[in-house]
Backbone:
């Protein structure tokens, strides 16, 4: 049996029936990583000792007759912007190349308390700034479906690990689409909960008012199980919301009859037929499942990219000021005075995209420009949020494409930052509004090479249950293979 192809539920069934041990499942994943990650490059570091020790604890509890924890024995990967005690947390940046985290992020702590087995830390765009995982300070990650293409970003390593069967599920972070877009590019499920639903304690800050931690999985149920584990109030995070967490997994009934699905005009205009045809077929499938399809308008969508890139760069400029070579991380060994040390440390430690965003953000916050840029962007953010609030008076969920384009070639956009930023046009709106969003597979492009297409579903604040219900019903009805034109994953095949 191929233990690396199993879902969390299947792993639990094997453990319950004593057909496999958690150690065997962990060892199978570590062996598969050793064999396959040379070409995918999803991981930055592995922690086999930690993984096997956790797996042994799971097996000991099973042997003692204890009830299985919700994620018992499930091998998971963690994006390298999320702290893991005693392990390197580099944020894929040379400036933190040798930084060892002194504590676990709340999300990691909750995963391990639920029996999950952490295999290692995954590659990403440096400090989560990018849409392709080409901005990593170490090496790019490759898309398992076509090794010449990007896996998306910034959580491309986590998405690729799940798609290539190098982990059963994974944690990523999403600031403007960094879970949902790589999920779409890698043909898996990725979810961002409502802002405040999952604690950010232990997540290295990029843009504090936009950052989320969320799960990847190969099924909606796996994503629901991981989200249910990591969600909930945390006193260590002042932005964590004291809102009860629903039983997400139990709500996956497959019945969505009567659900009102909004389709915004702004997300479909100018969309290529390669993506648009699949999205239309997905909407038709939801209609056959008993959903009411309702055209809606989100009129301030056109301002979202400009708004997002002012707010996120301004917050990045502030958050990344701490990397100065004084407190921790890389320090330039050659300098004449303190100012020279700051300058050389940040020049050598940060990559080009991080420097670009720090400079953009510093400019937006500077005297004389704050009101013209940052303050105005915050006002537009309010208008975008209001668009969603008003839309959810009419509909229960909103369906859109995840990305306007399929996975692009490695190197194709790396020298064109504007084109890279525009790839986030359908994901940044939910981030600005703080609403939950999920990306699910939606077939593949009709022309060769047949590339993954993702469909995005939004719900109102803290209504993750409804969002997961719709995504699961779509999966159960065969929506993941919708308009599929064939082709195998070359890494798992």
Residues:
């Amino acid at each position: 049996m191929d233990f690396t192809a199993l879902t969390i539920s299947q792993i639990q069934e094997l453990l319950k029936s004593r057909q496999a041990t958690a150690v065997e499942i962990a060892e199978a994943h570590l062996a598969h990583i050793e064999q396959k990650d040379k070409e995918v490059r999803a991981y930055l570091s592995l922690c086999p000792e930690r993984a096997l020790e956790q797996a042994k604890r799971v097996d000991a509890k099973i042997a003692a007759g204890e009830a299985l924890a919700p994620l018992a024995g499930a091998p998971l990967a963690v994006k390298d912007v999320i702290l893991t005690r005693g392990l390197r947390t580099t944020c894929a940046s040379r400036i933190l190349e040798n930084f060892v985290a002194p504590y676990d992020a709340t999300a990691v702590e909750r995963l391990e308390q639920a029996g999950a087995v952490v295999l290692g830390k995954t590659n990403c765009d440096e400090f989560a700034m990018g849409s392709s995982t080409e901005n990593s300070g170490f090496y790019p990650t490759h898309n398992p479906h076509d090794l010449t293409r990007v896996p998306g970003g910034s959580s491309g390593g986590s998405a690729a690990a799940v798609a290539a069967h190098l982990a059963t599920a994974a944690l990523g972070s999403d600031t403007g689409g960094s879970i949902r877009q790589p999920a779409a590019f890698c043909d898996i499920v990725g979810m961002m909960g409502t802002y405040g639903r999952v604690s950010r304690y232990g997540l290295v800050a990029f843009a504090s008012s936009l950052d989320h931690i969320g799960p990847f999985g190969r099924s909606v149920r796996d994503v629901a199980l991981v989200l249910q584990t990591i969600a909930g109030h945390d006193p260590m995070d002042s932005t964590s919301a004291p809102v009860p967490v629903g039983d997400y997994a139990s709500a996956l009934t497959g019945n969505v009859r009567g659900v009102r699905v909004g389709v915004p005009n702004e997300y479909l205009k100018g969309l290529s037929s390669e993506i648009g045809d699949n999205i239309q077929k997905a909407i038709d499938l939801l209609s056959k499942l008993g959903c009411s399809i309702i055209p809606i308008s989100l009129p301030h969508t056109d301002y979202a990219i400009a708004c997002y890139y002012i707010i996120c760069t301004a917050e990045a400029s502030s958050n990344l000021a701490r990397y100065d070579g004084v407190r921790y991380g890389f320090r330039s060994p050659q300098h004449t005075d303190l100012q020279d040390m700051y300058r050389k440390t940040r020049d050598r430690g940060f990559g080009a995209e991080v420097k670009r965003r720090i400079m953009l953000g510093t400019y937006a916050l500077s005297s004389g420009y704050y009101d013209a840029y940052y303050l105005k962007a915050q006002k537009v953010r309010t208008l975008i949020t209001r668009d969603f609030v008003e839309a959810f008076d009419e509909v229960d969920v909103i369906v859109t494409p995840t990305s306007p384009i399929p996975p692009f070639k490695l190197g194709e956009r790396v020298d064109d930052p504007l084109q890279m930023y525009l790839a986030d046009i359908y994901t940044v709106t939910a981030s600005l509004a703080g609403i939950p969003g999920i990306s699910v597979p939606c077939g593949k492009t009709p022309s060769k090479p047949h590339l993954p297409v993702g469909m995005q579903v939004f719900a109102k604040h803290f209504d993750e249950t409804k969002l997961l219900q719709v995504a699961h019903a779509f999966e159960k009805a065969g929506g993941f293979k919708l308009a599929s034109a064939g082709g195998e994953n070359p890494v798992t095949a």
